[in-house]
Amino acid sequence: VPPLIDNVEFGGLIADKAFDSNALVAELNERGARIGISQHPARALKLKIDHETYKWRHLIENFFCMLKEFKRIALRACKTDQSFQAMIHLAAAVINSR
Question: What is the structure's pLDDT at 44?
Fold first, then answer.
């Protein structure tokens, strides 16, 4: 992750528990960024997280779960990037209309 966020300005990071590392958390704290990382259950010392940012992480996670209900998206059945993007837009419109 460090090469990806190097020289990038942001106010917070929303991530899954795969990104729960002490080095990343230390860098985010050093930058003053809000942390919205799902903590690994085996973590000895629990992190202080921003609950408002964590709510957004949960909302995004739920949206991806709803997207995966669409078979063509879950199986990545589209042949091109454009058709895959079109299916995501279509599925998002269907989810939004529910």
Answer: 84
- What burial letters (b/e) apply to 36-64, b meaning 16+ CB within 10 Å? bbbeeeeeeeeeebeeebbeebeeeeeee
Contact 43, 20 (CB under 8 A): yes
* Separation of alpha carbons 60 and 54, rounded Å: 10
CA pair distance 58, 45, nearest whole angstrom? 22
Nearest-angstrom CA–CA distance, 53 and 12: 8
Decide if 5 contacts 26 (C-beta within 8 A). Answer: no
- pLDDT, one tens digit per residue, over 34-51 is 888 888 888 888 887 778
